[in-house]
Design goal:
heterodimer; B: mainly alpha; MetI-like fold; 2 domains; 14 helices; elongated
Chain lengths: 254, 307
Amino acid sequence: MKALVLTLVSILIAVAVLGPLAIGPAGLELNLAHDLQSGYGENGFDVFTWLVYGARVSLMIACICTVISLSVGVIYGAISGYVGGLVDIILMRFVDILLAFPGILLALYIAAILKPGILNLVVALCATGWVGYARVARSQVLAVKNQDYVTAALALGASHARILGRHILPNIWGPLFVQASFGVSSLILAEASLSFLGLGVPPGTPSWGALLDQGVTYLFVAPHLVIWPGVCIAVAVLSFNFLGDWLRDVRDPV
Amino acid sequence: MSKLLQVLWVMLGATVLVTGLLHWVPGDPVDYILGEQATQEARLKLSQDLGLVDAEGHPVRFVGQYVGFISKISQNKLLSYRTREPVMTRIAARLPYTMILALASILFALALGPLLGIIAAWRRGEWPDYLGRFVALLGISLPKFFLAPMLLLVFSIYWPIFPISGATDGLMSLVLPAFSLGFAMAAVQMRFTRASILEVASQDYIRTARAKGLSERVVYFKHALRNALMPVVTVVGLELGSLLAGAVVVEKIFGWPGIGLLLLESIEQLDMPMVQGVVLVIAFFYVVMNLFTDWLYDQIDPRVRVT
């Protein structure tokens, strides 16, 4: 399991980081002679080059959004759980509202009212992505905040900020990291979905989801435009899910 | 009762969020819809339509906009920006398609998932178990927008059994969309059922049943299964969100004329009132369905009510 997980994830990261440097952007140029030929896309860009650049876009967006969502979610959830009382109730009732929108619906709505662009896509994904982390962080803080070492720190006169930052946070990172690796896979999927629906990356940006959108249009003549990006997305999603499973087993062996 | 209050609160919040996002988003929605070269009259007209300014052209505060939106949508006077038709009338016409699709997917998942889970647990560690778990892994990791075109390639293009697009061929046009949408839920059902049977199988009352000399079949199907199938309801609740969001994708691929496709068409035409209407209707159904699955779970498992 460990070898499989680490191999898959390192291959993905290597392709995303080094791939574009290795093969260069020449294949992204349009060449009408190759329009929809085997191995080429609409107006003749090279599918392999597109997929390699797509890995970079996909992983970059997923990682940036995970870092932002994780930070926002942890701060929000930790404050909610630590302060408790009325503050907790108010903060969590707000989270309930965000949970009224199934799946990527709210991100889809935000992406629809913002202009298409990578920055706006990140905003749309983060606006909904932090909620899960906030809930986990809150429940973790609730579980540890009455432990003796917290009481001891309080008795020593530590400030609340210090207790949260130095005593509580280091003890709740574990489950959050596990969740973050599942988060990367769901963000890869969310980015691909939005790009597939035409609400993700701007037109012309190499993205797996955007290529699949073309593939559905040309399903009769160029099925390879569906198959290869689909395989890429499935492998990427599966790899980060495996990573999450493995991290969970390492932390909590049964 | 407190559950009902919570639903009311969540819907209030959802409407504020949906109208508020359009209000607070940087940039002028009027510019975005009409482009920057539009005439002053067209801009004023659209601003009034969107409820951004009043009849005299003064900007309306958010509270006023919100009240205007709610009163219009509740009297079915919220008009589509493109067709001038009441938003809710249009949504009501397309909603049955999405409901049929979602229902068919759930029924498909309920028919397939628990069955595979039962077989896998019954033949644990043998080939049916490995096959079932592999299928479940596929179901969880294959995105809907990959699975659906693959099904189209095989069953509509290579073997032309099912229609490629639309909802005009009755049950035949429902098969592939429902399969694409329900497969992931079936996979999760399979995993939960399998795990839950294996967990139940090691409990005392099963040992007691065996000790009484009951046949394996009776122990398995009468004693174990009954308790092991509880999570089936939970999974429907858990997976409902991705099902509803996935419906948008599946409707796009199969040209299925539900509200997901309506949402995408309206986004493309920058028909904001329609977009807001569809988003709120989907959220409303999601919240109500969650309430329903909670209630159902209460009914099935008496222990939930006690705690």
